[in-house]
């Protein structure tokens, strides 16, 4: 019997293993800009693609975060990684916490970049409808990206990222993940978790703010710390890749 694993990109062969999960508009390619600043001798990175996204675009599934957790753990087993750290951007922050819930003893540290907390984004019906409209409208995707980066970057860049997201994700997967991070809530399952957590927020992100992180992640994770990235909005890996990669590995290297 042949087992099919999710698509992924791998970088480095160091002893500290790291699995990174992208956001709603992204794919494993989101992390490419970081690799020139990452240390391949100290870290091994896997940039993971959800079913229906990127290198896993043709992989069918239920498109749930519980399925993501199962797929991440299956891949870690395949790689012979008994323990590893997790990095999650935006909705990937919520997805990585499902991995933590499924296998808490296997997680060394967690890093959230503009990361959705375990209580979800707590969107009301109006906001959910706005995001739902972006499923079939690339211009609305671009508008959300432009707003989330502080409405300060070239519109051309937001449009290109939106177009890339359209190509890199299947409609049914993109649509299925939305309600899970928009209105899902499993905060009770992570409350009091002692896993070390580092949260990064962009100073220009209007939604995922330091205040939100303090009211959510800090409430549930007693070992959480926060850093604000200057000159960044919601997409630090694109906006300030070298600064973010440096801060990421500095923290992962701490005992």
Automatic annotation (TrEMBL):
Keywords: Hydrolase. InterPro entries: AB_hydrolase_1, AB_hydrolase_fold, AB_hydrolase_sf. It comes from the Bacteria. The keyword Phosphoprotein does not apply. It holds the Pfam family Abhydrolase_1. This is Hydrolase. Transmembrane segments: none annotated. GO terms for molecular function: hydrolase activity. Residues 18-239 form the AB hydrolase-1 domain. The keyword Cell membrane does not apply. GO terms for cellular component: membrane. The lineage of its organism: Bacteria, Pseudomonadati, Pseudomonadota, Betaproteobacteria, Burkholderiales.
């Amino acid at each position: 019997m042949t087992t099919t694993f999710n698509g992924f990109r791998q970088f480095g062969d160091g002893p500290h293993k790291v699995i990174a999960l992208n956001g709603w508009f992204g794919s494993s390619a989101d992390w490419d800009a970081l690799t020139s600043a990452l240390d391949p001798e100290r870290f091994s990175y896997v940039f993971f693609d959800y079913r229906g996204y990127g290198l896993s675009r043709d992989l069918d599934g239920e498109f749930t975060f519980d399925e993501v957790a199962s797929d991440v753990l299956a891949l870690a087993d395949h790689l012979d990684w008994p323990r590893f750290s997790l990095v999650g951007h935006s909705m990937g922050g919520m997805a990585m916490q499902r991995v933590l819930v499924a296998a808490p003893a296997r997680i060394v540290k967690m890093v959230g970049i503009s990361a959705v907390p375990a209580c979800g984004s707590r969107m009301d019906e109006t906001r959910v409808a706005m995001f739902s409209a972006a499923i079939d409208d690339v211009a609305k995707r671009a508008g959300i990206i432009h707003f989330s980066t502080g409405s300060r970057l070239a519109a051309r860049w937001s449009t290109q990222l939106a177009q890339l997201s359209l190509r890199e994700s299947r409609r049914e997967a993109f649509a299925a993940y939305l309600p899970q991070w928009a209105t899902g809530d499993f905060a009770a399952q992570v409350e009091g978790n002692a896993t070390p957590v580092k949260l990064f927020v962009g100073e220009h992100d209007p939604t995922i703010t330091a205040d939100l992180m303090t009211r959510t992640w800090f409430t549930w994770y007693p070992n959480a710390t926060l850093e604000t990235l200057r000159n960044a909005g919601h997409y630090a890996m694109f906006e300030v890749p070298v600064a973010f990669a440096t801060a990421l590995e500095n923290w992962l290297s701490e005992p």
